[in-house]
Design a protein that fits this description.
2 domains; DNA-damage-inducible protein D; BRO_N_domain; alpha+beta
Length: 288
């Protein structure tokens, strides 16, 4: 996510934070707009899913979701009462987690509410970390699909390993998977992708997705035909990167994804404890 987008969204989200007895909260009606939901009834469904998640994690729903009513102006100059919900940072985080991360507002919110201090630079860092984790998950999924596809077409597990290795050589300018592990200081018994930057993981995934598509479309059979297809796709992706000044084999290694994942998960587990709790006695408090 581009820094200017993070800056804009950070400013918007900060504009709507409230305080009740030292506990930060957001109103659901405001969060609906911030997350890009047009209809309240659709947003309420996401809130209900978040409540289920809250219950699953053994936290009291009433500590984080408090029903309130508020007055809104009408065009005639009068007012009417509408239902709303006070949401702690943890509640907002659960709502964001139950949304569509392809929407930039929701992808931002997932990191915004996960970071305790909500400083922009920490949010940007968290977004980069989660984007890398998501890219790795997509690659894992596409490689699993490739393994299933080629098994149905006469290629065994050893053949799958050879196909993937040849693809790596094409992507990394002739360097084998093992050689790339040595260059990056990655253990030989760990997947290379766990030490690659997001752009390279995404490149590997794109090549694999194209291979999956063409294997099915062209009904490719056997190791040789599928290898040729996979090598060509990795070569094409490499050429695109090189034209943009990116040589995959020359990029520095990134932090071990296993360690990164543990750190992110540990951080997210602490959200409920650091978000504070709302009580019915506080629902009338709103001090900005």
């Amino acid at each position: 996510m581009k820094p200017e987008i993070v800056h804009r969204l950070h400013r918007h989200f900060e504009d709507y934070v409230h305080d009740a007895g030292g506990v930060e909260f957001w109103y659901a009606r405001d969060l609906q707009v911030l997350l890009g939901y047009k209809e309240w009834r659709n947003f309420v469904k996401v809130v209900d899913k978040a409540k289920e998640s809250c219950q699953t994690t053994k936290h009291e729903i009433s500590d984080h979701f408090v029903d309130v009513n508020k007055m809104v102006p009408l065009g005639s100059g009068s007012e009417r009462e509408i239902p709303d919900i006070m949401l702690t940072r943890y509640a907002c985080y659960l709502i964001a987690q139950n949304g569509d991360p392809r929407k930039e507002e929701i992808a931002f919110a997932q990191s915004y509410f996960a970071v305790q201090t909500r400083k922009q630079e920490l949010i940007e860092e968290h977004i980069l970390l989660t984007e890398r984790l998501k890219a790795r998950a997509r690659l894992r999924e596409s490689e699993s699909e490739l393994s299933r596809n080629i098994y149905e077409r006469g290629v065994d597990e050893s053949g799958f390993g050879r196909i993937r290795s040849r693809g790596d050589m094409a992507l990394f300018g002739g360097y084998s998977t093992q050689t790339m592990k040595e260059r990056l200081g990655a253990p030989q018994n760990r997947p290379l992708a766990d030490f690659l930057p997001t752009v390279t993981i995404t490149a590997k995934n794109l090549a694999t997705e194209i291979t999956n598509f063409n294997v099915a479309k062209e009904d490719l059979q056997g190791e040789r035909a599928i290898t040729d297809e996979h090598v060509q796709n990795n070569t094409d992706v490499r050429n695109l990167l090189v034209r943009r000044g990116i040589r995959p084999e020359s990029l520095p290694p990134e932090e071990d994804l296993k360690k990164l994942e543990r750190r992110v998960r540990s951080q997210e587990k602490k959200i409920a404890g650091t978000a504070g709790r709302l009580t019915n006695s506080e629902t009338g408090t709103d001090e900005d």
